[in-house]
Design a protein that fits this description.
The protein is an alpha+beta fold and 590 residues long. It is 46% helix and 25% strand. It folds into 5 domains: 5-138, Rossmann fold, CATH 3.40.50.2300; 143-252, PAS domain (Beta-Lactamase), CATH 3.30.450.20; 268-369, 2-Layer Sandwich (Beta-Lactamase), CATH 3.30.450; 370-451; 458-590, Heat Shock Protein 90, CATH 3.30.565.10.
Length: 590
C-alpha cells in the first residue's frame, strides 16, 4: 500500500526527531520536519502531504493555529494539533480551524498511532463522501430534467442547473428560499393552482401530472410534467420532497402539429396509405375507405398487394425498391380493386417516410380515383380517331380521286401536245404530270398515316408489319420483326395507341438515329402486352428523350394503363418499350 505522507511542524528539535522516528516505525513517510508555520507554508507550495502534525506554539511570527488557518485556505489537508496547553482559549481558537485531532505533548505513542489511524480513516471517508457528492451533483447538473429538493418546510436544499434555467433563477439565490416564493405559479389543465406537498405534509408520492409553470417576473410560461417523491431520512422519517420536472413544451407543440397533420390527412378526399418497407399497411385514412371500400381494421396489418387485381402485374415492389435506392418519386397510373371487386383506375404518388437518422422506415401512397377522367379521355381519343378516320377517308376518296382525274386529263393533254406543240411545252406538261403524281402519292400516305387500313381491317399485328414494310421501302432501313400472332381480342383503343407509339418510335429511329436496322417486337409476357422498338443507331439526345414526341408516347401509354420505358446510349441505339396489362388490352371499348 502507498505510505501516508506526514509533515511535522514542531520547534522542539528533540521532540520533532523523536516523532519522526516513531512515525516511520509505524509505517508513515515523514516528508519533512520544520520548526515554523512560515516554513511549512513555503514547503507545501512544492511538496504534497496527506497529514500535518502541527504544534500550537511555534517559533516565528505565526503560531500553529494561524499557520493552520492560512494552510486551510489553499489546501485540504487534515491537521492534528500538538500542544502542552489545554486551556479553553487555546481549544476555542483551535476548533475554528476544524482540526482532525488534538493531542498533548505528554501523549504516548499508542495514543499517537490511534489518533493518526482515526484521522486517516476519517479523512478517507470524507474524501469519498465529497467525491460521491461531486459525482451526484455533476450527474444531476447534466440531465435535462429539473431536480429540486426541499425540506419539510418547503425550503430549497438543492436544485440542479436545469431547474435554475427552467425557472430563470440563480442557483445561489435559490438556496434556503421556500419553493413557493421564487416567483413560479403552477396550474393544472383545469387552471387550479398546485399545492406544494410540504404544506399538507404529504406522505405519498405525487404522480406525474401536467402543469403550466408561469414565471411572473419574466412573463413567460412553460408546459411541464412534474412528479414529487418523498425524501426519507433515518428511521424512515420524512426529511423533505424531491421534485422531478420535465419540459414538455416542444413535445406538446410537435403533438399539436401531428394532430393537425393527421386531421388534414383524415379529411383528404384522396386515399392516403402508409406502409412499412415490407409493404404492410399501417395507416389508412377516410379517403382510402371511401374510394376502396375497406375500413382501416380490414386492411391494417395486411400487405398492400391485396389491393392489386390478381390478373394485373404488381408494380409496388419495384416502386418501393426504387425509393430504397434513393430514386425520386413521381406520379404513375395503375389499376386497383375495390372491396366489392370493382376495378378502378388511380393516379398514385409514392413518397419515402424518413426517420431522424435519414433511414427509410416506410412509404406513403397518395392515390386519386381517375376512372371517370380516364373514361372521358378515352372518349375524346375515340372522337379524335373518328375525326382522323374521316379526314383520311376524305383525302383518299375525295381529294385523291380528284387528283387522279386531273392526272388522266393531263395525260390526254400530253398526247395531244406531243403531236402539235414544241418540245418546251411538252416538257412543262410532263413536269406538271409528275407533280400531280407526287401529290397523289403524298395524299395517299397522309390518308394511310391518319387511318391505317391494316389496323382497321387486319389488326395491330398486320398494321405493324405494314409499318415495317413502309420503313424498308421508303427509308431503306432493314427491319427485323418478332410478332406474336396468337395475341387476340385487343380492344380498338389499345391497338390504336400502340400503333401510334410504334409509328412515333420508328419515325424517331429514321430521322434521328442514323442507324441501319430497326427491331420491332410485340409479345405477351407474364400477363402483359409488350411492344418494343429498337434501333442500332447513335442514340438520341436528351432533348429528344424529353421532347414532345416522347411525351405524347407516354401520354398514349397512360391512356391504356401502360408504362413507357426509353433507354438510349451513345452509339448503342435507342430502345422504346411499352408495357400494357393484358386485362386492360382486352377490356371492352367504351
Amino acid at each position: 500500500m502507498k505510505k501516508i505522507k506526514v509533515l511535522i511542524v514542531e520547534d522542539e528539535s528533540i521532540l520533532s526527531m523523536d516523532m519522526t522516528q516513531s512515525l516511520e516505525t509505524m509505517g508513515y513517510e515523514v516528508i519533512d520536519a520544520v520548526p515554523s508555520g512560515e516554513e511549512a507554508i513555503m514547503l507545501l507550495k512544492e511538496e504534497e502531504t496527506d497529514l500535518i502534525l502541527m504544534d500550537v506554539q511555534l517559533a516565528g511570527v505565526l503560531d500553529g493555529i494561524q499557520a493552520a488557518e492560512l494552510i486551510n485556505k489553499d489546501h485540504n489537508i487534515p491537521i492534528i494539533y500538538i500542544s502542552g496547553h489545554t486551556d479553553e482559549l487555546t481549544l476555542s481558537r483551535a476548533k475554528i480551524t476544524g482540526p482532525y485531532g488534538y493531542i498533548t505533548k505528554s501523549f504516548n505513542y499508542d495514543e499517537l498511532n490511534t489518533t493518526m489511524e482515526m484521522v486517516v480513516y476519517k479523512n478517507e471517508l470524507q474524501r469519498k463522501v465529497a467525491e460521491n457528492e461531486y459525482l451526484l451533483d455533476a450527474t444531476l447538473d447534466n440531465i435535462e430534467d429539473a431536480v429540486i429538493t426541499v425540506d419539510t418546510e418547503g425550503y430549497i436544499m438543492y436544485l440542479n442547473s436545469s431547474a435554475a434555467r427552467m425557472m430563470r433563477i440563480n442557483k445561489a439565490d435559490a438556496s434556503n428560499i421556500k419553493i413557493d416564493r421564487i416567483g413560479i405559479i403552477w396550474k393544472n389543465e383545469s387552471g387550479k393552482e398546485f399545492v406544494h406537498p410540504y404544506k399538507t405534509q404529504r406522505k405519498k408520492r405525487l404522480k406525474t401530472t401536467e402543469y403550466v409553470m408561469i414565471n411572473k417576473a419574466a412573463g413567460t410560461s412553460l408546459v411541464v410534467e412534474c412528479t414529487v417523491n418523498i425524501l426519507y431520512g433515518d428511521k424512515n422519517k420524512i426529511r423533505g420532497y424531491v421534485y422531478l420536472i420535465k419540459n414538455i413544451e416542444e413535445r406538446k407543440k410537435i403533438a399539436a402539429i401531428q394532430s393537425r397533420l393527421a386531421s388534414i390527412v383524415e379529411s383528404s378526399q384522396d386515399a392516403i396509405v402508409g406502409i412499412d418497407t415490407g409493404g404492410i399497411i399501417n395507416s389508412w385514412n377516410s379517403g382510402a375507405e371511401k374510394i376502396l371500400g375497406y375500413n382501416s381494421t380490414e386492411v391494417i396489418g395486411y400487405n398492400i398487394s391485396m389491393l392489386t387485381p390478381s390478373n394485373y402485374p404488381n408494380e409496388l415492389p419495384e416502386k418501393i425498391d426504387q425509393l430504397k435506392k434513393g430514386l425520386s418519386a413521381s406520379h404513375y397510373e395503375s389499376i386497383r380493386q375495390k372491396k366489392n371487386g370493382e376495378m378502378i383506375e388511380m393516379s398514385i404518388l409514392t413518397s419515402p417516410i424518413i426517420d431522424r437518422k435519414g433511414n427509410m422506415t416506410g412509404v406513403s401512397f397518395i392515390a386519386r380515383d381517375i376512372t371517370e377522367k380516364k373514361k372521358l379521355e378515352k372518349e375524346i381519343i375515340e372522337i379524335g380517331e373518328k375525326e382522323r378516320e374521316r379526314i383520311g377517308q376524305d383525302l383518299h376518296d375525295s381529294l385523291g380521286q380528284q387528283l387522279t382525274g386531273v392526272l388522266l386529263n393531263v395525260k390526254s393533254l400530253e398526247n395531244e401536245v406531243r403531236e402539235q406543240c414544241p418540245t418546251l411545252l411538252v416538257d412543262m406538261v410532263i413536269k406538271t404530270k409528275d407533280l400531280i403524281k407526287d401529290a397523289i402519292a403524298q395524299t395517299r400516305q397522309l390518308a394511310k398515316n391518319l387511318v391505317p387500313i391494316m389496323l382497321q381491317t387486319e389488326g395491330l399485328q398486320h398494321a405493324l408489319i405494314d409499318l415495317a414494310n413502309y420503313a424498308e421501302t421508303v427509308y431503306k432501313k432493314e427491319v427485323e420483326m418478332i410478332i406474336d400472332h396468337e395475341i387476340t381480342d385487343i380492344n380498338t383503343i389499345t391497338e390504336t395507341q400502340l400503333y401510334h407509339i410504334a409509328q412515333e418510335a420508328v419515325n424517331n429511329a429514321v430521322k434521328h438515329a442514323d442507324g441501319s436496322k430497326i427491331y420491332i417486337s410485340l409479345k405477351n409476357v407474364q400477363s402483359e402486352l409488350v411492344l418494343s422498338i429498337k434501333d442500332n443507331g447513335k442514340g438520341i439526345s436528351k432533348n429528344h428523350v424529353e421532347g414532345l414526341g416522347m411525351r405524347i408516347m407516354n401520354y398514349r401509354a397512360n391512356l391504356i394503363n401502360g408504362s413507357i420505358y426509353i433507354h438510349t446510349e451513345e452509339n448503342e441505339g435507342t430502345l422504346v418499350l411499352c408495357r400494357v396489362p393484358m386485362k386492360t388490352a382486352e377490356m371492352d371499348t367504351l
